[in-house]
Amino acid sequence: MLDSNKDTIAAICTPLGKGGVGIVRISGENSLSISLKFFKSSKKNFAGIKPYRLHHGYFISHQGKILDEVLLAYMPKPGSYTGEDVVEINCHGGPAILQLILEELLASGARLAKPGEFTYRAFLNGKMDLTQAEAVIELINAPTKEAIPLAQQKLQGLLQQKIQTLKKDLETLRQEFCVAVDFPEEDLECLPPEKIQTKVQKTIEEINALLTAYEQKHLYQDGALVVIAGKVNAGKSSLLNALIGKERAIVTPIPGTTRDYLEEYINIQGIPVRLVDTAGLRETKDEVENIGLQKGLELILQSDLCLLLVDIREKFSTYEQNILEKIPHHKIFVVLNKIDLSSTMPKWTENINPKIPIFKISAQTGKGLKELSKAIGKQLLGTQKESSSALVPNLRQKKCLEKAVSELNLLLQHLFEMPYDLLSVHLDLACQHLKEITGEITSEEVLNQIFENFCIGK
Ligand SMILES: Nc1nc2c(c(=O)[nH]1)N(C=O)[C@@H](CNc1ccc(C(=O)N[C@@H](CCC(=O)O)C(=O)O)cc1)CN2
Ligand SMILES: Nc1nc2c(ncn2[C@@H]2O[C@H](COP(=O)(O)OP(=O)(O)OP(=O)(O)O)[C@@H](O)[C@H]2O)c(=O)[nH]1
Ligand SMILES: [Mg+2]
Fold first, then answer.
1. Is the N or the C terminus of the chain less surrounded, counting Cβ atoms within 10 Å?
2. Which amino acid positions bind GTP, per UniProt (predicted)?
3. Atom 1 (ligand 1): residue with closest C-alpha?
């Protein structure tokens, strides 16, 4: 353990801004002695700090001035969030007062905590494993309410348990391998390859269920990129405004109104969607507009779904042709706009790939928008089969699971031709990848990557 992991650390753990109450948290050996230098109880017959009680009193600066009226809580080790002695000072929630209190503590022997360091200590002290630490940040970052139960299950340790079970199954199998290797002449002890095959296949299936769950649910956490493309004046900015429900983008009858791209986040059936309005295509010598167009094009190519908006009265042009050629059909919707001005289905729509859905809307009257929004959600969620797993790994965990599966597949591939001692290497590696998920095996690089994303005070 690094020396710095023994420091007493402090940080403001409520958001920086005005709030009813703000909390400064201190963790480590000296957390109580440091806080007691500043805390003065309001009780006349104060008999000392008791664990898990809120004590009313005052935070007195080193110059003897009352900085604030506070409530102080003490949670001794090991029964605290970090597993160390923790003190929380609840003061009034203003950024300046919180900062003053923190500075007093820092001048008195505490060190400013790094982002995620409280949770990192909880991990080091065995209060939680890596899947739970990652669930903490996932919960804080949950963009919509649909993401909350996914994070909460992991915070409660359900993913950790699942991984432990998978690992134990493989370890048991590994032992049976050893028996076969150590006593090759005793047929009895040797598990026949068919039995091994069945067991490994079962583990692969269980891991695959987790991987399917990732494919299905990561959208709720990571969100999706939906880009509105179309020629000038098609009504792209009007559509963005209509979908987000406010006048965000400038709309005018002048072609070329939007010269850069602009974006807004909306919640479509629980999916956090980054909705982008691009500059409409037209020949231009304006350098600014050309850069805007280029950026828009890049976004269109990256998008999870492109809404190709066309004025229903307009002819099909090389612009639409281009987009339809560049983007796979399952990532594109053709959207005919301004149906309040004409309801005739243009002839050119007969010639486009029948797999591409066509919608008819009016961004101005709102007609057809509900159907469009519903279809966007459905399209993004995809048509994958329901996963049997309610547990959803994150990207890092998914990568470990994929590596584990690939080792197990290698094992199956060579099961009938290679000796058990060589095959067992794949089992060991598969186990290692599972241990990386929970943090039983870990590297500084992985830990840094995880805790870097935390906020200070968590
Ligand atoms: N004020 C405050 N609110 C908070 C937290 C906190 O640290 N402080 N939390 C976190 O940021 C979350 C709650 N999580 C927590 C998890 C464990 C412990 C804890 O002390 N656990 C002890 C058992 C305590 C007991 O049983 O009485 C333990 O695990 O041994 C505290 C908070 C959300 N709200
Ligand atoms: N009648 C009618 N007019 C619309 C509709 N949608 C947009 N418009 C009008 O079409 C014109 C262009 O709309 P914008 O939303 O600015 O079009 P845009 O695609 O963003 O245009 P650029 O930013 O220039 O590329 C404006 O005058 C809008 O009021 C619609 O559904 N019906
Ligand atoms: Mg526009």
1. N
2. 233-238, 252-258, 277-280
3. 88
How far is the C-alpha of 72 from the C-alpha of 54, rounded, in Å?
Answer: 5
pLDDT in tens, 181-209: 666 565 556 678 899 999 999 999 999 99
Can you tell me the ipTM of this complex?
A: 0.74
Give yes or no for a contact between 457 and 117, defined as CB atoms under 8 angstroms apart.
no
Report the CATH architecture of 9-128: 2-Layer Sandwich (3.30)
Q: Could you give the count of Cα atoms lying within 13 Å of 215 in the half-sphere of its Cβ?
A: 15
Residue 321 to residues 119, 174, 283, 313, 324, Cα–Cα distance (Å): 52, 57, 16, 17, 5
**Tokens (6 digits) for 134:** 């990652």
Which protein residue's CA is at the shortest distance from atom 24 of ligand 2?
Answer: 256
Q: With beta carbons less than 8 A apart as the criterion, state whether 327 and 306 touch.
A: yes
Q: Which class in CATH covers the domain with range 135-218+394-439?
A: mainly alpha
The mean per-residue pLDDT over the stretch 331-346 comes to: 96
CATH hierarchy code of domain 223-381: 3.40.50.300
Per-residue burial over 294-305, b = 16 or more CB atoms within 10 Å of its CB, e = otherwise: eebbebbeebbb
Q: At what angle do helices 117-124 and 130-141 cross, to 10 degrees?
A: 160
pLDDT tens for 1-17 read 456 899 999 999 999 89
∠ CA 218-219-225, nearest 5°, is: 140
